[in-house]
Write a structure and sequence with these properties.
This protein has five helices and no strands. The radius of gyration is 20 Å and the shape is elongated. Its cofactor is Ca(2+); heme b. Belongs to the peroxidase family.
């Protein structure tokens, strides 16, 4: 039997692309952790009242997390730390705010919300506040 032709390959790719597609959703946590966005907002509001630059600091933290290899929360890790890496050492702020948000979200919805999503929402809310 002859090997796959170009037509077979194109047909396979078109079928797979129509079946496998991911959609981002702003309501992803609406069922699994409905209080998450309000929790992030409340902690961010308190943090910005305490330090007006915190919104900008968290946006910068979000940028450093997402810029190289995508938004994975790696900048938040303590072990093998990106926190202490050359460009980040003593220049990034807001880790304690993310830790406070994570603690409150974990109390409400244990093991549901990722640190990367918390950082993204905190950066979003920080730019608005």
């Amino acid at each position: 039997m002859a090997g796959p032709t170009l037509m077979h390959c194109l047909l396979a790719v078109s079928l797979l692309s129509s079946v496998a597609h991911a959609q981002l959703s702003t309501t992803f946590y609406s069922r699994s952790c409905p209080s998450m966005e309000n929790t992030v907002w409340a902690v961010m509001k308190h943090a910005v009242v305490k330090d007006r630059r915190m919104g900008a600091s968290l946006l910068r933290l979000f940028f450093h997390d997402c810029f190289v290899q995508g938004c994975d929360g790696s900048v938040l890790l303590d072990a093998g730390s990106e926190k202490a890496a050359g460009p980040n050492a003593n220049s990034l702020r807001g880790f304690e705010v993310i830790d406070a948000i994570k603690a409150r979200v974990e109390a409400a919805c244990p093991g549901v919300v990722s640190c990367a999503d918390i950082l993204a929402l905190a950066a979003r809310d920080g730019t608005f506040l």
